[in-house]
Structures are given as structure tokens and as C-alpha cells.
Specification:
This protein has 286 residues and is α/β, with parallel strands linked by helices. It contains twelve helices and six strands. It has one domain: TIM Barrel.
Length: 286
């Protein structure tokens, strides 16, 4: 479960809320807590000690969000420096996976530029170049990057094939795929096909529900609603995850269920309910 659902609380209190709801694994919404201010090592020790006491493991963290930047610019070097810091902090926290958005154009960019085949190929080349530069550090700290699929409105990196093209070009075991189910559903993609195509490269998930093919990004709790209305059919998703041998976390990322604006008591009840019914679902109790 993603700590950003309790973004209005301290990281300590957010982790306590997740553990109190029953969750055994968590995704840090960011590393901002460790990147701001002094005494970084003390903060790392504090959170690791807390997680041990709560019985919750920090399985993954959401890294930088991948807005496109030009190569060999100050912004490029700054982004690279941020990624280096994320890798080091993640390793010190015992987090093995950093979820990363690929570098891509914003959705409101000129459509002719965004939809250009030449520009897509250029973006692919730049992503490979950027991630390749991180390999020595990933090897040193034994951390992996899971590249996340985007909405199709970005016109890039929304299919398993595109993400696999990046990973195959990198030729490193320190890269894999993070499947965002809302992004797939909103892009009209087949979730089960994505899982099976990604295969062993699927190492992380952002689980949420969404309406199909409308380029929405709802990020709701799995609703188990009528899939003919466009909602995710979760039973084939479960089957595909099991068939592919996926052994990572079934990690909820559900900002659409309300965050800071939603009363805390409602969020507490929602995450407890989500843990209970999704545990039963994954155990084939329905």
C-alpha cells in the first residue's frame, strides 16, 4: 500500500496507519522526508526501526516522475543527481525497487510533436541513454528500477513492448517493469496480456481501478464492478499474475479514493476494508 494516501500525516504516522489496517508491505510515495534537512542517517535508522516494530516492509518507493528534459543540460544533470540520491537512500532503507516514470512529453504538448514517430524514437533513445548511466550505481547498491507504463495520451511507453524495448537495450538485471493498472485501463489496454508479455520483467505494481479507454486516471480501489461498463475485470488479472510467476507485491496506489481532502476516519476505514477484501481475493476465497 502506497503511503501517499496519508500524505497529510508524517511518514511515521502514515506507516502506523497502514500497519494498523493490516498491511505488511508499503510503497513510499517519495523519499522527500529523507532528502529535506539534516540528520539523514538518523531518519533512516528511525524509519527502519519503526518498520521492524510494526512488522511492515518497505518493498518499493516511487522515484522521480519523468518529465522530459533535454540531454546534457543542467536539468538533465540535476535529474541524474536526484536519481543517484534516490538509489543510495533506497539501499540504506533496504528498499530494493524504485518505481520510475520514463522521460516523456507532457500531455498538453503540441499534438503534432507528441505524435511524431521521429520524436517517439528520439524519446526512446534518450530514455535508454539516461537509464544506462545509472547502471553502475544500481549494481553498487543492489537496487532495481521498475519503469512504469504511462497513459496512452502521452503517446509513448504505455505498452509492455515499449518498456521491454528499453529494458532489452539496457542489458541489465537491475531494470524491470511496474504495471500501473489505471494507466493500462484508461489507455484501453488488456491487463492480462500486458502481464504475460512483461513476464519475469514485471517486478512491481500500482494497483487501482479505472474506466477503460477514456484516458482518465481515476486510481480507485478495485471495485469488482461490471466490466462491461469499462471497469477492470480482476479475475483474469489474478490468473495472469499467477501464471506469469509474479512474486512482487499487489500494491495499492489509490489517490482517487481521497487523500488530504477526505476525513481521516473515512480513509482509515477504506484502507482496512481494502486490505481485508483484497487479501481474500488473492487467497481465492471468492
Amino acid at each position: 500500500m502506497w503511503t501517499g494516501y496519508f500524505a497529510d500525516l508524517t511518514l511515521v504516522d502514515a506507516l502506523k496507519k497502514l500497519a494498523g489496517a493490516g498491511f505488511k508491505y508499503a510503497e513510499l510515495a517519495s523519499l522527500a522526508y529523507f532528502q529535506k534537512g539534516p540528520k539523514n542517517n538518523e531518519k533512516i535508522y528511525k524509519i527502519k526501526n519503526l518498520c521492524d516494530k510494526l512488522g511492515i516492509k518497505l518493498h518499493q518507493v516511487h522515484g522521480h516522475f519523468g518529465t522530459y528534459i533535454e540531454k546534457s543540460t543542467c536539468a538533465w544533470e540535476k535529474r541524474f543527481a536526484v536519481c543517484k540520491e534516490e538509489i543510495k537512500i533506497s539501499s540504506n532503507l533496504g528498499i530494493g525497487i524504485i518505481v520510475s516514470h520514463p522521460l516523456c512529453l507532457e500531455r498538453d504538448i503540441n499534438p503534432k510533436q507528441r505524435n511524431s514517430v521521429d520524436y517517439y524514437q528520439y524519446l526512446m533513445k534518450e530514455n535508454i541513454s539516461f537509464y544506462k548511466k545509472l547502471i553502475p550505481l544500481l549494481e553498487k547498491y543492489n537496487v532495481k528500477i521498475a519503469i512504469e507504463n504511462m497513459l496512452s495520451s502521452f503517446n509513448c511507453f504505455y505498452s509492455a513492448e515499449e518498456l521491454l524495448e528499453i529494458i532489452d537495450s539496457l542489458k541489465s538485471e537491475h531494470f524491470g517493469i511496474c504495471m500501473d493498472t489505471s494507466h493500462l485501463q484508461g489507455s484501453g489496454q488488456n491487463l492480462s496480456r500486458f502481464i504475460l508479455k512483461a513476464g519475469k520483467q514485471l517486478i512491481a505494481t500500482h494497483i487501482s481501478d479505472n474506466l477503460a479507454g477514456k484516458n482518465l486516471d481515476l486510481h480507485l480501489m478495485p471495485a469488482f464492478a461490471n466490466n462491461n461498463d469499462g471497469w477492470v475485470d480482476w479475475f483474469p488479472v489474478r490468473e495472469a499474475l499467477e501464471k506469469s510467476g509474479y512474486n512482487g507485491s499487489f500494491n495499492l496506489e489509490i489517490p482517487g479514493e481521497g487523500m488530504i481532502c477526505t476525513p481521516l476516519v473515512i480513509r482509515e476505514r477504506k484502507v482496512k476494508y481494502a486490505y481485508e477484501y483484497l487479501t481474500e481475493f488473492l487467497e481465492h476465497k471468492f
